[in-house]
Every structure is written in structure tokens, then in C-alpha cells.
Write a structure and sequence with these properties.
It holds the Pfam family ILVD_EDD_N. It is an enzyme of class 4 (lyase). It catalyses: 6-phospho-D-gluconate = 2-dehydro-3-deoxy-6-phospho-D-gluconate + H2O. Helices cover 37% and strands 14% of the residues. It is of the alpha/beta class and 605 residues long. It folds into 4 domains: 327 residues, no CATH class; 31 residues, no CATH class; 34 residues, no CATH class; 154 residues, Glucose Oxidase, domain 1 (3-Layer(bba) Sandwich), CATH 3.50.30.80. The radius of gyration is 24 Å and the shape is globular.
Length: 605
């Protein structure tokens, strides 16, 4: 049974956060008082700021009466999820003119694809890219030319980075504008099957590439429910999207209408409008709890047990792993989306999507329905289905009372499981996170000898050599933030999945990450303290009996306590992680980064 309800968890976060939150709001109020006063800029400052604008826009921006909207975009045309943003600045500028304002691209921020870098050296830059994105957005907004901002981002580290920037500039109203998922391609479970066959050597590279290309086949977000789509869910749960915006496909009339509507709304919530809504005031402890509720109710990405802590910290809010775990104990699983089910996010959206989910959570008292949003007061306006009127404007109707597909979306009184599935593991190996919503009950407890690796390639080589045909717990260490940037180890999923399917009891223990695609193999990830900091994981040896218990929430090595305490910690060989693919540029980040349970941030959260 839950030990605390949502209100109690929220209140303890409020109390814990009081000093840092009050200091944050004081800084925000000072920035609001200072305002965006373009007429106070020197003539040279202002001339540089609007040099490329039209004569009418220059006239508008010369004074303070016409609002200017800053566009922060993560567009590039390598990421399928971000390629649709190429069109958005023109759409936004036109919508701004129609609304009586001006819009300028304030900043472009980097956006890397974890799908491209999985298992590659570039993955060691991935987590740090979040903080780089926050800083890049800050550089653009520091010109102080803007009355509000819209943020164009979708994928893994991009939205958390943009969120941190938005809350750092919390005196500005902010709206997040997504691009939407690509249409459904090869079913995700079939893709996973081909990956396992490839890992076993039963199909070749040509067959694997064909399957992958049918899965990732066009513009839009990948359709499995990983970190990218969890991002969109959280933005809507916090009221940072226009209602219903999360999962509308790109390059459609409805998607463009939602983007134009976001621009119009952004001007209404500036200081020049009638509903001034600075984002730092709008986002509070209740908003952050709503994001964690959504994460658990949908079986979302384990990455957000790191990101959400860093995101909250940008607003002076102190969130912990225990808060997220307790919310998981309180909130039932209402969605079955791959890897927690067979359906993808397009099926989820068609079944009722975010509108149905929010309606159910609000009616059950499992989320805060009284928060301020970019759309106004309360989350009731988000319990909707979205469509297009004949005149091209957005139409909203109440969410269905019953899911269009009960196998994908459940009601709060008849959930798929009584808890959300994200748990904190604790024991003599430290603290860790496990996602058990996709793990069958019979696989949630594994007690087996450890096999220790210090690189994921070592495990893959051992698998190919036939050395892992037994019960074991794979320990992949020196993968933490300080060691090598905490890469995702998602390429370990196929071989471990193969071994589990062959009847062996297997699990993973690592101070690295797995990703939003954490699946059927039990994995204790984000182990803290990490091995490079001398954490207990650095003392493990081959053959040590380890017990991972996802039911009781424990992670332990079953070795004599005195003997284990006396062991020296392995040092690890990190030389090869220091150079190549830009890793040398991130040495300062590796030295400054905090622990995973503190958000793995270089900003001192």
C-alpha cells in the first residue's frame, strides 16, 4: 500500500525546497521588474538586434509596445524528430504578424541523436549535451530582446535542456512546441525480434538494416515510448504545451494549426497581454509532481529519474529519487506502449492519448488539476481530444469516457498494474533505479553470480564467444557521469534478452544508463555512488553472489560484510574515454558533474 498520497509527497517537496525556491522567485521578480525594455538599449544595440527585420518590424521593435517572441530551435535535418522544425520559424513569424507582434530566431541549440550514437564514442557526450543545450539557449536569450519564448525541441536531452533554459529565464512566458511522432512503421516488437536474431547470428546485417529502416522511416519522433515521447508527455502534464499538442503527426494541417495557436497564446501571456504568465511562476512543485505522475502512469523513460531532478532544480525545487519512487507506489500504470506493451505512440494517441490519461488522473485525484498552464488555470482544459475545424483552427472536444482501445489505455479503477513501475533499489551496493513495468513478475528477482565488465563491448564479446550461457548478473561499471559521461547501454538489451529467452536468470547492474527503452530484462541502473567515486560497485568481483530484488526494492552483494569492506576498489582504465569524437572538450564537465541522484548536472543542482 502507498505510504503517502500525492498531496503529502508534494508538501514535503515544498518544505524541502522552501529556501532555494524563495531565492529563485526573488531573482525572478527582480527580472520581471526590470522587464524587457528595448527602448533602453543603445541605438547600436538595437540596430544590431533588428538589422535583418523588415522596415515595419524595425518600427515595431524600436519601442516597447509591440511584443517580440524569441524562437529557440533545435532544428537539424539529421534527426527525424527535429527535421520538421525547418518549417516552423516561417509559420511562427507569420502567426506573430497576424497576432500583432514580431518573432525572431533567438538561438539554435545542438541536438544529437542517441539512436545514431548508441554503442559509439559519441554517446559519451549525450548526457552532457543537455547542459550544453541549456547554455546555448541562454546565450540566445541573453540579448534581452524578447517578451516571451517558444521552444522547438523533442528528443532525449533536448527538451530537458530547453526546460532548464526556460526556467533560468523564468521571468519570460514560455511555450514548448513539439513536432510530433512519425507515422507507424514496422511494429516495435518485430524490430526487437530482428535485433535479437541478429545478436544470435541468425540474420545478417542486410536484414537488420531493412528492419531498422522500416521502423525509422520518415520525419517525426521514433514511435516507441522512450525518452523523446516521455518528454512530450511531461510537457503536457505540466501545461507547457497547448492542450492536445504532444502526439499529432508532423507536416499535417492540425500540427501547423497547433503551432500557430501556440504563437497567438504566447503573446496573450506576455506583460503586454492580459494574462501575464512568467514560466518560473507557472511551474511550481505541483507541476513537477504532475510530470512524475505522468512518468509513472505511462511507464515512461528511466532517463527522467535524472532529468526531472535537474529540471526541477532550475526552478529551485528539490526533487529526489525517493519522491519519484513514492509517486510510483501511489500511481497505477494506465498505458501499455512499447516497450511496456506492443502498441506505439500513434496507437496511444488514437486510443485517447494524453487527454484521456489526464482526465483519468484528475478524476482519481492522482495529479494536481489546479496548476497554472500556458492555456490558463487548471488541467481540465487538457482532458480533451484535438481535431481541426473547417476554417483550419484547432477544435477540442471532451476526452472519451472509455478508452478507444482498452488494451492500450486503462481507467484508473482498472489499471494494468497498481503501481507505476519505477523504483529505487537500495542496499550495500548503493542506490539504483529499476523500471519493472516491462519486466514479467517471474523475472523481477534475480540472485546469481556476478560477471564484471568495464566496457559494454566486453559483454558483447563474451556473449558472442558463448561464455554467458548460464545464470548471472552482468555488472558493467565505470559508466557513470564522472567516468565517461554516463552513456546509454541500450545495445546490451538484445544479447541479455536472448539469454533470458533461453531460460537463464539474467540481470544488469550498472552505474550507466539504459534509456527510455528499458525493457524486459531487469536492470539496476544509475548505481550511485558510481565506480569512479569508489562506490561499492567498484569492489565487486567475478563470482560474487548478487541479489537484485525488484519486488522488495533491494540491491545487495551477498558477501561477508567485513571482507567486502576491506576490499580495495578497482580503479578503472579511463584513458580511452578522454579523447576522440569531441570527448576531450568535455573534460571539465566530467570533473564538475554531480551524482545521478542529484540530476547528473554540471550546474550544481
Amino acid at each position: 500500500m502507498p505510504t503517502a498520497n500525492i498531496s503529502q509527497i508534494t508538501q514535503r517537496i515544498v518544505e524541502r525546497s522552501r529556501p532555494s525556491r524563495e531565492a529563485y522567485l526573488e531573482r525572478l521578480d527582480d527580472a520581471v521588474t526590470a522587464g524587457v525594455n528595448r527602448s533602453s538599449l543603445s541605438c547600436s544595440n538595437l540596430a544590431h538586434g533588428f538589422a535583418v527585420c523588415s522596415p515595419s518590424e524595425k518600427s515595431d521593435l524600436a519601442g516597447d509596445t509591440v511584443p517580440n517572441l524569441g524562437i529557440v530551435t533545435a532544428y537539424n535535418d539529421m534527426l527525424s524528430a527535429h527535421q520538421p522544425f525547418e518549417r516552423f520559424p516561417d509559420i511562427i513569424r507569420q502567426a506573430a504578424r497576424e497576432a500583432g507582434g514580431v518573432a525572431q530566431v533567438a538561438s539554435g541549440v545542438p541536438a544529437m541523436c542517441d539512436g545514431v550514437t548508441q554503442g559509439q564514442p559519441g554517446m559519451e557526450l549525450s548526457l552532457f549535451s543537455r547542459d550544453v543545450i541549456a547554455m546555448a539557449a541562454a546565450v540566445g536569450l541573453s540579448h534581452n530582446m524578447f517578451d516571451a519564448a517558444v521552444y522547438l525541441g523533442v528528443c532525449d536531452k533536448i527538451v530537458p535542456g530547453l526546460f532548464i533554459a526556460a526556467l533560468t529565464f523564468g521571468h519570460l512566458p514560455s511555450i514548448f512546441v513539439p513536432a510530433g511522432p512519425m507515422p507507424s512503421g514496422l511494429p516495435n516488437d518485430e524490430k526487437a525480434r530482428i535485433r535479437q536474431l541478429y545478436a544470435e547470428g541468425k540474420v545478417g546485417r542486410d536484414e537488420l538494416l531493412e528492419a531498422e529502416s522500416k521502423s525509422y522511416h520518415g520525419p517525426g519522433t521514433c514511435t516507441f515510448y522512450g525518452t523523446a515521447n516521455s518528454n512530450q508527455m511531461m510537457m503536457e502534464m505540466m501545461g507547457l504545451h497547448m492542450p492536445g499538442a504532444s502526439f499529432v503527426n508532423p507536416n499535417t494541417p492540425l500540427r501547423d494549426a497547433l503551432t500557430r495557436e501556440a504563437v497567438s497564446r504566447a503573446f496573450q501571456i506576455t506583460q503586454a497581454g492580459n494574462e501575464f504568465t512568467p514560466v518560473g511562476r507557472m511551474i511550481d512543485e505541483r507541476s513537477i509532481v504532475n510530470a512524475a505522475v505522468g512518468l509513472n502512469a505511462t511507464g515512461g523513460s528511466t532517463n527522467h529519474t535524472i532529468h526531472l531532478i535537474a529540471m526541477a532544480g532550475a526552478a529551485g525545487i528539490r526533487l529526489t529519487w525517493q519522491d519519484i519512487s513514492d509517486i510510483s507506489d501511489t500511481v497505477p500504470l494506465l498505458a501499455r506502449v512499447y516497450p511496456n506493451g506492443l502498441s506505439d505512440v500513434n496507437h496511444f494517441h488514437a486510443a485517447g492519448g494524453m487527454g484521456f490519461l489526464i482526465k483519468e488522473l484528475c478524476q482519481a485525484g492522482l495529479m494536481h488539476d489546479d496548476i497554472r498552464t500556458v492555456y490558463g488555470e487548471g488541467m481540465e482544459a487538457y482532458g480533451i481530444e484535438v481535431g481541426l475545424n473547417e476554417d483550419g483552427t484547432v477544435r477540442r472536444s471532451p476526452a472519451p469516457e472509455i478508452s478507444h482501445e482498452p488494451k492500450i489505455l486503462a481507467t484508473a479503477d482498472k489499471p494494468f498494474q497498481p503501481t507505476g513501475g519505477l523504483e529505487v533499489l537500495q542496499g550495500n551496493l548503493g542506490d539504483a533505479i529499476i523500471k519493472i513495468s516491462a519486466v514479467k513478475p517471474e523475472n523481477r528477482v534475480v540472485e546469481a553470480p556476478a560477471i564484471v565488465f568495464e566496457d559494454q563491448s566486453e559483454l558483447q564479446a563474451a556473449f558472442k564467444a558463448g561464455e554467458l550461457e548460464k545464470d548471472f548478473i552482468a555488472v558493467v561499471r565505470f559508466q557513470g557521469p564522472r567516468a565517461n559521461g554516463m552513456p546509454e547501454l541500450h545495445k546490451l538489451t538484445p544479447p541479455l534478452g536472448v539469454l533470458q529467452d533461453r531460460g537463464f536468470k539474467v540481470a544488469l547492474v550498472t552505474d550507466g544508463r539504459m534509456s527510455g527503452a528499458s525493457g524486459k530484462v531487469p536492470a539496476a541502473i544509475h548505481v550511485t555512488p558510481e565506480a569512479l567515486d569508489g562506490g561499492p560497485i567498484a569492489k565487486l568481483r567475478n563470482g560474487d553472489l548478487v541479489r537484485l530484488d525488484g519486488e522488495s526494492g533491494t540491491l545487495e552483494v551477498l558477501v561477508d560484510e567485513a571482507e567486502f569492506a576491506a576490499r580495495p576498489a578497482a580503479k578503472g582504465q579511463m584513458v580511452k574515454n578522454q579523447h576522440g569524437m569531441g570527448r576531450e572538450l568535455f573534460a571539465a564537465f566530467r570533473q564538475a558533474v554531480g551524482q545521478a541522484d542529484h540530476g547528473a548536472s554540471v550546474f550544481g543542482v
